[in-house]
Amino acid sequence: MPHHPVFLVGAGPGDPELLTLKAVRVLGEADVVLADDLVDASILGYCPQARIIRTGKRGGCRSTPQAFIQRLMLRYARQGKKVVRLKGGDPCIFGRAGEEAHWLRERGVACEVVNGITAGLAAATSCGIPLTMRGMTHGVTLVTAHTEDGRGPNWPALVAGGTTLVIYMSVSTLAATQRQLLASGMPGGMPVAFIENASLATQRQLHTRLADASRDAAAWGLRSPAIIVVGEVAALAQSPHGLLDASSAIGALERQEPTRRANR
Ligand code: SAH
Question: Where does the Tetrapyrrole methylase domain lie (predicted)?
């Protein structure tokens, strides 16, 4: 009997309400769930029947090696088990879905990906930032400065492109990223938003500008997991109580729409 496909499932940013119906169904049918460290414990309530294997480094133990996780998936799949590999956000955004799917398929195991809401999109929305906005930016780029080969993105090209930047895995490399963006010609006044633990009860957000970004983040105690949004749209951030950093937001709005401020 051919075995089931392995499902690479996106758990979204944390809030279980942001799971897809498909993710909930697949979780409910799973025999084994290998859950990444970024997956919030509340999500695991959707697979009470499954054997749950935590593959993360949070909680004190060392990160489970990638090769070991892949071998586990393969072993359970070959036993005829329904295997779910559960990832934070979307499995295809900095989630190794490509390499895991390729590795499994090479060994004769089919793979199906179930999208999730990636942290960058949820983080921006959770504080009222529209990542694209007519008249402000014509696009958005999801990027990380934390690469295995140590070579970062082409920052001058990103700055020249003028899209909103959503930066993942950015906390440890923040000072360097700030330097590179400034050196690539991005203005020091460019609005920046930090969103930590997006969509969870522990969410925090900080709004500043590029020139002060790493200093403010350090003073504020920014910790992983966090998303950084860099771009004019970051000035539009709101909390349920209104504009969080009114001075920088109004400054940015003024540059865009000189009449808007007069109405405040
Ligand atoms: N596949 C995931 C990303 C994994 S890389 C996704 O699509 O979201 C891990 C990085 O994701 C973290 O370093 C952080 O930058 C970001 N991240 C994940 N969950 C987050 C959350 N709840 N709040 C803020 N950032 C988060």
Answer: 6-213
